[in-house]
Write a structure and sequence with these properties.
globular; 12 helices; single chain; TIM Barrel
């Protein structure tokens, strides 16, 4: 770990009703209080839970994020959610370009960069996801894919804006599969991302950007992953839905 502080965020995906979210967040609030000042913690529930989630964690060290955002400010876009709607609720973070959005909703690097720009313009902090599929890794295309996604997804984002942005490397083959990139595999890609950031923004800025790892992070592997030089936290799926498990994951990572 560098002098960048850890940032661990939970992505709840399409799980938990608003009522269930309140129960989990109430337990998390109590569990995670002891980590105050030691790292950044965010939880990203579904849109329908955001309002109650923000109210539940008020005054605690947990921030709330959304799982997606529209690249448009307002208008005739049925089913879309704007940056202003999220801000009005008290949301601080937003996940952009998660592999599930890229895969099932055909989101391109171009759209992801627009969404990130929209979020930043409104004052939200984007968590921009990148990652390769199993097929791409097995055919040795990991570096090419990551390079293209980093450059495309951050297109138009300034040096000042990248400091408000978190990147999350999520190998698609390790999401929800129980497979995890080894700490060495993860570090290798994180190092590449840091090198690309250096090329785009210069070394000083690149050194400040947080890069999370995502993909079956659990209490048993969080310490080893977070010990790597360029891994600055985690974007956690299933393990963030259970207060005790999330607590152990964070505790082990510190």
């Amino acid at each position: 770990m560098s002098n960048r502080s850890l940032f661990i965020a939970g992505n709840w995906k399409m799980n938990k009703t608003a009522t269930e979210a309140v129960e989990v967040l109430t337990a998390l609030k109590e569990n995670l209080q002891k980590f105050e000042g030691k790292l950044e913690i965010a939880v990203c529930p579904t849109f329908t839970s955001l309002d109650r989630a923000v109210q539940t964690v008020k005054g605690s060290n947990i921030k709330i994020g959304a799982q997606d955002i529209s690249d448009k400010e307002s208008g005739a876009f049925t089913g879309e959610i704007s940056a202003q709607m999220l801000l009005d609720l008290g949301v601080e973070y937003v996940i952009i370009g998660h592999s599930e959005r890229r895969e099932y909703h055909n989101e391109t690097d171009e759209l992801i960069s627009k969404k990130a720009k929209t979020a930043l313009n409104a004052g939200l902090k984007p968590i921009v996801c990148i990652g390769e599929t199993l097929e791409e890794r097995e055919s040795d295309k990991t570096f090419d894919v990551i390079t293209k996604q980093v450059k495309g997804s951050l297109n138009g984002i300034s040096s000042e804006e990248i400091l408000k942005t978190t990147l999350a490397y999520e190998p698609v083959w390790a999401i929800g599969t129980g497979k995890t990139a080894t700490p060495e595999q993860a570090q290798e890609v994180h190092q590449l991302i840091r090198k690309l950031l250096t090329e785009i923004y210069g070394e000083k800025t690149a050194e400040e950007v947080k890069i999370q790892y995502g993909g079956s992070v659990k209490p048993g592997n969080s310490a080893e992953l977070m010990a790597k030089k360029d891994i600055d936290g985690a974007l956690v799926g299933g393990a963030s839905l259970k207060p005790d498990v999330f607590n152990d994951l964070i505790s082990n990572a510190l």
